Every structure is written in C-alpha cells, then in structure tokens.
Amino acid sequence: MALPDVVSPQAWFTARTQLLAREKKLTRSLDRLNADRRRLPMVRIETDYTFQGPDGALGLGDLFGDARQLVVQHVMFDPSWDTACPSCSAALDELSPGMLAHLRARETAFVAVSRAPFAKLAADADRRGWTFPWFSAAGSAFNYDFHVTLDPAVAPVQYNYRDADALVAAGLGWVVETPGEQPGYSCFLRDGDAIFHTYSTFGRGTEQLGGGYAFLDMTALGRQEQWEQPKDRTENARAAMPDFAV
C-alpha cells in the first residue's frame, strides 16, 4: 500500500507552503465563482406546486416558513421504493438541527422533497431518527420540472443542463435509457408574494454540500474511492458512491 513520502519537518513545511499557494488561488477562484453564482438571473415560479407534509397540503411558499430563501434537497425516493436512495440518505444523515438553525439565522430554510408518498417519507425518517422537514411531491410536476425525475414519457429528458442527445454524446446514455430519480439541490428566493428559482445543481455539483467528503478530502487517504489519485492508498478502495456503506 503506497503512503505519502516520509520527509523532514522542513521539507514538509516547504511542500505544504507550496500547496498553500495553490489552495489560496483556488479559494479566490471559488470566491469569484460564488459571486457569479449570486449574479445569476432568476426565473419567477408560475406553477402552483402542491406538497404533502405532516399537516396536509402545502404550497411552495409555505415551505419557506418565515425565511426569504429556500434550499430544497431533491431526495431520490421513487413511489415504489420502501426507503430513500442510500447515497441521498448518507447526505441526510449528516444534516443536524444546529446546521439548519444556522441557515435559519441567515433567512434560509431547508427542506427535503421526494416523489414517494408522505407516509413512506415519515416512516423512513422515523426509522433513521431524522427530524428535518421532508415533503412529498407526489402528484405534482415539481420533480419533472426541476429535472430530478427523468421520464421521456412525461417530459423531455434534461439532466445537469444536457438534453437527451447531449447526455448520450457525453457517454451518459443510461440516464436517458433508464427513467427514474436523480439527486440535486434547488434554491429559491421569495420577494413579497413572488417566488423565484435562482439555482440548481446536480451530479458532482452536490458534493460540496456533503460533510463527510469535505473532511475526507483533507486527509492523506482521501475518500478511498477507486477513481482517486494517487492510487493504492487503501487496500479496500470503494466505488464512487457517497453512501458510506461499510
């Protein structure tokens, strides 16, 4: 098993400061990217989406509570399943009441939304000890309109801003060939009575929100997944699946 080279403290300090210069460059680049993300135009929501929760039917505006912003995690949970997707569940395991309170302190609400009926969501949350708000979009076009339920029989396929032809050309034909659920996050802003869609991210764009990955990326062994460089840091390299299964 290949591990990092062993060097003197001074050699390590030199290598670390060289890497620090690159980290600072990336941080400044991320700052610019985040600023450009905030400059994105937005789209007014004209559809009256309906969600089911513990108190019955709610509209999209109700999911904000008294916050100005809303972050929705699109959790993969097909109506025919008995539990949510393992990878989505791993991300949900890392949510904490404290983190959600921190978002609330900055006028931002968080909810999870899935297409399975609310009774299944509630049962799954109870089994896993989850307390975050989780709503069902069953019977609504919400998942299709935000491109996390893909079914060409219902709506033209688009995922991660690629249509069906672009997905096939990129080697992602399986997304088109296998209708179903996909992960993602969407952000909304409320201004008076108007609600606007400001941002959505899919695929690896969701990784920045995963607490476990962020910590592992700082370590010598990394995520311990098969795609990572350098190779041979672990004898039991895992597939690139953020479910953290043993």
List keywords for this structure.
single chain; 246 residues; alpha+beta; Glutaredoxin; six-stranded mixed β-sheet; two-stranded antiparallel ribbon; 32% helix; globular
Biggest sheet record: 6 strands, mixed
For this structure, what is the CATH homologous superfamily of the domain at 47-148 and 183-209? Answer: Glutaredoxin
Roughly what is the average pLDDT, rounded to an integer? 90
Proportion of beta-strand residues? 15-25%
Helix and strand run: HEEEEHHEHEHEEEHHEEEH
User: Count of DSSP E strands?
Assistant: 12
Into which percent range does the helicity of residues fall? 25-40%
Count of helical stretches? 8
Q: How far apart, in Å, are the first and last alpha carbons? A: 20 Å
CATH topology of the domain at 47-148 and 183-209: the name is Glutaredoxin
Which class do the helix and strand fractions yield? alpha+beta
CATH architecture of the domain at 47-148 and 183-209: 3-Layer(aba) Sandwich
Q: Stretches where pLDDT falls below 50 for ≥5 residues?
A: none
User: If strands are numbered along the chain, what order do they take across the biggest sheet?
Assistant: 1-12-11-4-5-6
CATH class of the domain at 47-148 and 183-209, named: Alpha Beta
Radius of gyration: 20 Å
C-alpha geometry:
globular
